[in-house]
Amino acid sequence: MKVLDEIPILLREINNPPEKLYYEGNFDILEKPCIAIVGTRKYSDYGEMATKQIVKELSVLDIAIVSGLAKGIDTIAHKAAIENQLPTIAFLGSGLDEIYPKENYELAKQICKDGLIVSEYPSKTQPKSMHFPQRNRLVSGISLATVVIEAPEKSGALITAYLAIDQGREVYVVPGDIDRINSKGIIKLLQKGAAYAIGSGKDIVANLMQQPHLFKKKEKSQDKSPENFPEIGYRLTEEEKKIFRFLPRYRLVTVDKIAEGLNRSTTSILTDLSILEIYGLVKTENGKYRRTC
User: Fold this and answer.
1) Which CATH fold topology does 2-214 show?
2) Cystine design at 169: which of 18, 164, 265, 285 (Cβ 3.0–4.6 Å)?
3) Where are the domains of the chain?
């Protein structure tokens, strides 16, 4: 167990910032843009499917997935991140040597290989009910956005959502059937106009792309404002990157022109263009293509 030399900027600026953070794993992950995914412990098949799909679709971005290592949606989000080669960060409500729940001990070890487990509680601290709402402020605080998947009216996931709102972060929710208890918290957030309803991870990517400062290169700043988020990059193959760079933003280009310019077959170009279009990075009009950003 190690102690962070310096609390990350985004956590220094929240209400009641942590005095210390203990960690195991790669602390450089904290420099990545983070998206939190939270939800109920008593999840449905729908909630599991939605979580896995959203993480998979977010894997186009060079981000880290954050959650709280709890049973249910948190566990699914961490595992989905690992499956999609995304680093993941777990904030605990106990000491790092007191993994809770105990059945996630192996998952915590797996997270540490390429990701990070973090706690503000020292060694031997047992999990207590009061620790988890405190933990939630760190989950939302380190993240530029929080995604809520299935949340009853009184749930830790809903607490995290309200903390994110207070911290000036984006909140996204997955709508569910109105007669399900796990939809009650989601409905409340939407009624208050406090969250964006999404149908996929692609919706989150599209919404974040409307905030150019998150995607543009910028000079390093000493500004400690929560708006000074780490920039978001894309996880593309080298061939996809070449196509993306080749395409103009405001002029349409044919597939044949792209293939000629990159000395590739039109078939392989079309395959990569399809991926870029799914990611929302390329738009097609009348069989021609251009960049969207």
Assistant:
1) Rossmann fold (3.40.50)
2) 164
3) 2-214, 238-291
